[in-house]
Structure formats: structure tokens, C-alpha cells
Write a structure and sequence with these properties.
This protein is an alpha+beta fold. The chain has one domain (5-177, 268-386): 3-Layer(bba) Sandwich (FAD/NAD(P)-binding domain), CATH 3.50.50.60. 38% of the residues lie in helices and 27% in strands. It is built from 13 helices and 20 strands. The protein has helices spanning 12-23, 36-41, 50-58, 63-68, 88-92, 102-115, 165-168, 236-245, 249-254, 298-319, 323-350, 357-373, 375-386; strands at 5-8, 28-31, 47-48, 70-72, 74-79, 82-87, 97-99, 120-121, 125-130, 138-143, 146-151, 154-157, 175-190, 200-203, 209-213, 219-226, 262-274, 277-278, 281-283, 289-290. It has an eight-stranded mixed sheet with strand order 6-5-14-15-16-13-17-20, with helices on both faces. It has a six-stranded mixed sheet with strand order 8-2-1-12-19-18, with helices on one face. A hairpin with a 7-residue loop joins β9 (125-130) and β10 (138-143). The longest helix is centred in the C-terminal third of the chain and has 28 residues, at 323-350. The structure holds 8-demethyl-8-dimethylamino-flavin-adenine-dinucleotide and P-hydroxybenzoic acid. Residues 45-47, 199, 210, 212, 220, 293-294, 296 line the site of P-hydroxybenzoic acid (PHB).
């Protein structure tokens, strides 16, 4: 088999790239190690930046996100028992975010790909990338006990943090930066009415909590838990009780409880691999970088990487220009590092750190007090939260 771009991974990054390339008349095959149902069962992101919505528009897959997604013009910061609204629209001159689940984005992309008759190989085993430092890159994989080979011009490594692409880069060619946080997020998805119309990010002495949603009848809640906590140590009733402790009286009164549709623990990590290109191999999304979810940036960064990569490939095939290819890594990394900084800062501000004790808590409360009462500080938070543009000035 031969294609122009071999895409490894059918998560949001791989599927979005496939759809954008299709719109530009560029041929791509996606190789995914899991089944479609497994990919759809991963409950992850919920907040889309305008930059991400614009790319979904360009890929022609945004109809349901516009119809069913919830536009949010602000969110609340809760600390010292009180909520303070960050008015995203007023502070940014009209920007907002859209609350729409990653599962739904993935489903829309899968449906569009199937409708266009494009090839995705699911359940591929032993996926390997070869010769990306030379003129004839190729991908091999096993499917139903048979080995297959896919020859291509370029390989897009969209295979997430544990994928094979970054791991295939020769040692020494990659510099990685990492911070692992001493806590994780225990998440619950439940068919209960959200406690409020907008998201609530809570800093409390018992630890961080986040009230998010997927619709007006489906809530997504998170609690900061120590990394040593095991899922089996938590019952859903304990979850609701602890969430109630971390909310203000009004939100607590509005808290509806019910069975969990999904419950999981995610560790928190900041990670960047540089550079993001090696010859004909391009890393995009979680394959190259991880942010802690506090800033809601992971999926959005994956989308902006894909936007740069799509432009690079379109320039190459349409105009025989290598400019986008040569600048891909630098352009991505500039936006990546800004989002890394924001996510690290917001995580540090909102979570309880075991080593900083009461003094650390006081410092966070003082910073939050400043943040919600200073227009310039609130503006800095708001413009990062809604997402930086893809082309920022020098
Ligand atoms: P994915 O989604 O991990 O997809 C990678 C795909 O590659 C496949 N794969 C392979 N395929 C072939 N061969 C191999 N050897 C392979 N190895 C792996 C995998 O099966 C998978 O299908 O990466 P991608 O596409 O880069 O997308 C990144 C996002 O999924 C991620 O950044 C976000 O979910 C992060 N995130 C959030 N991002 C946001 O923008 N806003 C949010 O509100 C938000 N909330 C979150 C989050 C992540 C969370 N967790 C669980 C870490 C909340 C949570 C709790
Ligand atoms: C979510 O709805 O899953 C979500 C929302 C905001 C975040 C992280 C996750 O910052």
C-alpha cells in the first residue's frame, strides 16, 4: 500500500489531520492500534478554544459542535469559600470557549472519515515506523496475523504520550522536559444536572475540585487526590460527599448525585519533547507534549499542531514549498511552551501541594484575591484560557 501521509493514531489529532488533508486533496491512511469503541470510551477533554472550533469548521466537521456545544462566556474561581466570576467575553473583547466533549469531537471526525470512504486501519498490532531520515519512509504493522507495509512521503506521529513514534527517534536527537505533580484527578461522569451554568475551579484546604459538564443534564466533576490513591478506595457516595465539602454553600445545595457513568484517576504531568520533527517524521499532540488538565489545553494544543502540519503539507503538495515543513517544529513549540506555562501556573495556583503547607495555601489565596480584583491580572488569565492565536506577533 502507498499513501502521501501515513498518520499513526486515530485520536483527535490523527483524525483531524486526516480530515483537513482530505479537504486539501492530500491522501492519508490512519493506523490505530485500538478498536473504534475503545477510542470512543476514553472520557477526556471538555473545553474547546475558538482556534480549535475554527479548525473543526475548516475540516467540515463542526455542525454538531455548533448545535450541541455549550458556548461559555466565563467561569468561576472559588476560594476561601466564595465564588468570583472571570468574564471571558468582557476581558478578551468577545472571545468565549465551547464546552463539547472530546468523545463527541472524535465521533464527528470518525463519522466524516467513514462518510468520505477514507482508510483507517483499526486494531493494528506491532506498528513500527522506518526510514524517516531518508527518502523512503514506511510504516509496518500486523493485522489479523498478517504483516503489512505502508510506503509514504511523510509520517505524522499522532499516537499520544505512550505511542511508538516519539520512542522511535534516535537517542540523543530528542530533548525532553518533564514535571510530574504529586497528585492526580479523580474524575466522575454522571447524568445529573450541573451545579452551575458555568465551570467552577475550586481552591480549598481539602484540595482542588472542578465542576464541569458535557450538557445541561450530564456533569463532569474532578477532585484532586494523592497519586497514591487507588480507584478501588473510592465509592461514588464518598466522591459526592467529598465534592460537597469542596464547594460553596450555593453550589453544594445545587449538587445532584447519582451513579457514575465513568470514574477514573488521571495523573498530572507537564512534558515537552523537542524538536517535533525528524526528517519526514512529525510529532503532533500528546505524542510531543503533555499539559496538566487544569488549563484545558491538551486537546486544543493537539488541534493547533495539526493546523500547522496541515498548512505545511498543503504548501508542500500545492506549491512545492518546504517552508512550512522546515518551520513546523519551531512554530508549534512556541505555542506549546506558552500553553505549558499557563497550565503549570494555573495548576500551581489551584492545587494543594503537600510540601508547602499553610503558608502555601495563604500565598495561593492572596494571589487569587489579587487575580480576581485586578483587571490586568484577570485579563492575562482570560486571554490564555480562551486560547492564544495561532499566529502571534514576534
Ligand atoms: P490521544 O487522544 O492519546 O490519541 C492517540 C491515539 O494513538 C493511538 N496509539 C497508537 N496507534 C498506533 N500505534 C501505536 N503504537 C499507538 N500508540 C497509541 C492511541 O490508541 C490513541 O487512539 O492523543 P491526541 O490525538 O494527541 O489527543 C490529545 C488529547 O487526547 C489530550 O491532550 C486531551 O484529552 C487532554 N485533556 C484536555 N484537553 C483539552 O484541550 N481540554 C480539556 O478540557 C482537557 N481535559 C484532558 C482533560 C485529559 C485528561 N486525561 C485523562 C489525561 C481531562 C483529563 C482528565
Ligand atoms: C472537562 O470537562 O473534562 C474539563 C474541563 C475543564 C478543564 C479540564 C477538564 O480544565
Amino acid at each position: 500500500m502507498r499513501t502521501q501521509v501515513a498518520i499513526i493514531g486515530a485520536g483527535p489529532a490523527g483524525l483531524l489531520l486526516g480530515q483537513l488533508l482530505h479537504k486539501s486533496g492530500i491522501d492519508a491512511v490512519i493506523i490505530e492500534q485500538r478498536s473504534p469503541d475503545y477510542v470512543l470510551s476514553r472520557i477526556r477533554a471538555g473545553v474547546l478554544e475558538q482556534v480549535c472550533m475554527d479548525l473543526l469548521d475548516k475540516a467540515g466537521v463542526s455542525a454538531r459542535a455548533h448545535a450541541e456545544g455549550l458556548p461559555h462566556d466565563g467561569f468561576d474561581l472559588l476560594f476561601k469559600g466564595e465564588r468570583h466570576r472571570i468574564d471571558l467575553q468582557a476581558l478578551t473583547g468577545g472571545s468565549r470557549v465551547t464546552v463539547y466533549g472530546q468523545t463527541e469531537v472524535t465521533r464527528d471526525l470518525m463519522d466524516a472519515r467513514a462518510a468520505a470512504g477514507l482508510v483507517t486501519v483499526y486494531d493494528a498490532q506491532n506498528v513500527a515506523v522506518h526510514d524517516f531520515d531518508g527518502a523512503h519512509p514506511r510504516v509496518t504493522y500486523e493485522k489479523d496475523g498478517q504483516m503489512h507495509e505502508l510506503a509514504c512521503d511523510f509520517i505524522a506521529g499522532c499516537d499520544g504520550f505512550h505511542g511508538v513514534c516519539r520512542a522511535s527517534v534516535p537517542e540523543g536527537a530528542l530533548h525532553t522536559y518533564e514535571r510530574v505533580y504529586p497528585f492526580g484527578w479523580l474524575g466522575v461522569l454522571a447524568d445529573v444536572k450541573p451545579v452551575a451554568h458555568e465551570l467552577i475551579y475550586a481552591n480549598t484546604e481539602r484540595g482542588f475540585a472542578l465542576c464541569s459538564m458535557r450538557s445541561n443534564t450530564r456533569s463532569r466533576y474532578y477532585l484532586q487526590v494523592p497519586t497514591t490513591d487507588k480507584l478501588e478506595n473510592w465509592t461514588i457516595d464518598q466522591f459526592w460527599t467529598e465534592l460537597g465539602h469542596r464547594l460553596d454553600p450555593e453550589a453544594r445545595a445545587n449538587l445532584e448525585t447519582g451513579p457514575a457513568l465513568e470514574m477514573s484517576i488521571a495523573p498530572l504531568r507537564s512534558f515537552v519533547a523537542e524538536p517535533m520533527r525528524f526528517g519526514s517524521l512529525f510529532l503532533a499532540g500528546d505524542a510531543a507534549h503533555i499539559v496538566p488538565p487544569t488549563g484545558a489545553k491538551g486537546l486544543n494544543l493537539a488541534a493547533s499542531d495539526v493546523g500547522y502540519l496541515w498548512n505545511a503539507f498543503a504548501d508542500f503538495y500545492n506549491d512545492r514549498s518546504r517552508a512550512g515543513i522546515d518551520t513546523y517544529s519551531d512554530r508549534c513549540l512556541r505555542r506549546v511552551w506558552r500553553a505549558e506555562r499557563f497550565s503549570w501556573w494555573f495548576t500551581s495556583l489551584m492545587h494543594r501541594f503537600p510540601e508547602t503547607g499553610e503558608f502555601g495555601q495563604k500565598m495561593q489565596e492572596a494571589e487569587l484575591d489579587y487575580l480576581v480584583h485586578s483587571r490586568s491580572a484577570s485579563t492575562a488569565l482570560a486571554e490564555n484560557y480562551v486560547g492564544l492565536p495561532m499566529d502571534f506577533g514576534t
